[in-house]
Amino acid sequence: MLKGIDPLLNADVLQALRAMGHGDDLIIADTNFPADSVARQTALGRLLRIDAPAADVVKAVLSLYPLDTFVDDAAARMEIVGKPDEIPPVQKEVQKEIDKAEGKSWPMIAVERYAFYERAKQAYCVIQTGERRFYGCFAFRKGVVPPDAE
């Protein structure tokens, strides 16, 4: 373990987060998402895992990962089929973690299921969680870390 780094973040995940650049997408998916087949199509080309609830994984990732402030879709959720405006508890929990990490209300857009799959295939990588609730699938676009003030 390392001081100051959430213990959920394993070496493979840390390497991927570090390698990503501004504008790259990260997918955090539930256990029902076709994570392995989608991950094979990403830039990393293999699946990463963190066996924990989605909100815990998002909290850990966002403790290190800056969201992109230049776009409106830096945080996205898979919308419920046939109920695009409904937000299930798992997505509400993740929204709270996003807002905490950013220190303000940060909108999470809804993405239709098949459009979400397409976005995921274009992502840098996919982290599959241990989340068993439906629609625990999220996309996060990486922002920048500004230089230290001089």
TrEMBL record:
Keywords: Isomerase
Listed InterPro entries: RbsD-like_sf (IPR023750), RbsD/FucU_mutarotase (IPR050443), RbsD_FucU (IPR007721)
SUPFAM superfamilies: RbsD-like
E.C. number(s) listed in UniProt: 5.1.3.29
Record GO biological process: fucose metabolic process
Top EC class, one word: isomerase
GO MF annotations in UniProt: D-ribose pyranase activity; fucose binding; L-fucose mutarotase activity
Domain of life: Bacteria
Membrane-crossing segments per the record: none
Protein name: L-fucose mutarotase
Species, as recorded: Mesorhizobium sangaii
